[in-house]
Each structure stands twice: as C-alpha cells, then as structure tokens.
Specification:
Number of strands: 8
Low-confidence stretches: 19-25
Strand content: 35-45%
Order of helices and strands: HHEEEEEEHEE
C-alpha cells in the first residue's frame, strides 16, 4: 500500500497542482514539457502538502518545503537540494540536504544528523523526481492519463491529470 501511495498518488497530486496545459494531446508530451520547464530554471522552490493513507484508516499529512539548485556536475540527480518535511499528524520533522559531499539528514526535534549512504532520498518523491519517474515508467509501459476539470488558483487556471500506472483490478 505504501508503494501505491508513493508511486501513484504523489505523482498525480504533483501533476494536479503544477500542470497548466489545457489539453492532453500526446500524453507524455505534457509531462516532458513540465520537466523541460523545471530544468530550464537555475533553481526553483515550492511548498507542498502530501496526504496519504496506508494500511490504517488514519491519514498522514506532511508539509514539505523544497529547494533545488541546478548542478551540471552532479551525475546522480543534476541538482543540489534541501527538502524539509514536517509531519503534522506525528512529531516527525526532517531536513534532507544533498550536495556534492553527499546526502545529510537532519532531525531538528532531537538535534541529530547523519550522512546517508543509500541513494534513496526524498528526491524521488519531489516534483522533478516524480515527473522523471512517471515519464520513465510511461516509456517502458504506457498507461492511461486522464484529464479532469480545470481549477482556478490565484486567478490562474490549473489543469488536473490523473496517471493510473496500474490497473487496480486483480485476477482480470
């Protein structure tokens, strides 16, 4: 269930908030357009709210502040970044900082930090990471991307896309 939440709901939410085109003519072209647009910036930042429900009926809410700075020399992600996550439903607060020296995870609540050796990071759950993952997955095995009604946020129309990577039916 956690995999489903991270790999289907988060990309859909990111696309819902940030995609602005009005029509999905070629499904993957909209995703590529967003990737190109983000990669065109030297740096970018945003805030997001992630709501997820795993195996229990409880909903976990995390507030994220994310900052990305392009680094042409970085072969792993192409960015240095700082991702701060504050879970409102739990007493869990972390800050991930990735530079050329590696990934460091800080925990302000208990004043600890450590260097992470695993490449798993919140990068893959960020907007740019999720869009790239969605594109890569689509190129391997195309799936349906549906268009929903537009929503007006601060006077700007935002389109909503839902990407269904997996069929939810089992046994046919």
């Amino acid at each position: 269930m956690i995999y489903f939440t991270k790999k289907i709901i988060r990309p859909a939410l990111c696309l819902l908030v940030f995609l602005y085109s009005n029509k999905v003519e070629a499904q993957i072209s909209s995703i590529q357009h967003l990737i190109d647009r983000l990669e065109g910036f030297k740096n970018f930042s945003y805030q997001s709210v992630h709501k997820k429900r795993d195996m229990s009926p409880d909903t976990t809410i995390a507030l994220n502040k994310e900052l990305f700075s392009k680094d042409q020399n970085d072969k792993l992600f192409g960015y240095h970044y700082r991702i701060e996550t504050n879970h409102t439903t739990e007493t869990f607060h972390t800050i991930q900082i990735y530079t050329e020296k590696g990934l460091f995870i800080l925990s302000p609540s208990d004043s600890t930090f450590f260097a992470e050796t695993d490449t798993h990071s919140d990068y893959y759950e960020s907007l740019i990471g999720e869009l790239k993952s969605l594109k890569e997955f689509y190129n391997k095995k195309p799936f349906k991307i549906s268009m929903l009604r537009d929503t007006i946020v601060n006077g700007v129309a935002h389109s909503h896309l839902i990407a269904n990577r997996y069929d939810k039916l089992e046994n046919k």
